[in-house]
Amino acid sequence: MPELRLEDLSARNIVAANNLSLKPGQEQFIAPVSYSVAASVINPNTAWQRVVLLDGEVAGFIHGNFDPDSAQEEFRACIWRINVDAEAQGMGVGKFAAEALAEEARRRGFERITVIWEPGEEGPEAFFHRIGFVDIGETEFGEVIGALTL
Question: Where is the N-acetyltransferase domain (predicted)?
């Protein structure tokens, strides 16, 4: 069974995180428009960024946000970005990362986490539904807002 563990994003592992590969067709789903718009106002002090190591090698990245004072509810406790290397997809890396973020949210007193994705055949919707997220709305750009009750 593969060993999965989290490590803080650092100068030591950021190059590997930036070089995670994607399966064909996944490029368009990396960052929904809503995140690009909100990125200009996100507080770097509320960011939670980790890499996932699979048998000692960087296989995934998760960026969460914990800001109970955010004007937009969907950004108070959320998965901002999750990337899993194409070769590691289907091996539990993404689920492990999302569960770690959910546990951190619980520890901070949140009752749910959210995520936003663009709908599409090669997109992450099936993954998020498999790990328990349910659709709760839509952004002004037509993206899906999903939530996981903790």
Answer: 4-150
Chain-centroid distance, C-alpha 107: 18
∠ CA 79-83-85, rounded to 5°: 160
> What kind of fold does domain 4-149 have according to CATH?
Aminopeptidase (3.40.630)
81's CB contacts (< 8 A; 6+ apart) are 30, 31, 35, 61, 62, 63
Distance CA 42, CA 75 (A): 9
* Domain range summary for the chain, segments of one domain joined by +: 4-149
Q: What sign for the dihedral angle of Cα 12, 18, 24, 26?
A: positive
Name the token pair of 30.
């990396």
pLDDT tens for 114-135 read 999 988 888 899 999 999 999 9
Q: Mind listing the pLDDT tens digit for each residue in 14-52? A: 889 888 888 888 877 775 444 444 554 567 789 899 999
Q: How far is residue 111's CA from residue 91's CA, in Å, rounded to a whole number?
A: 27
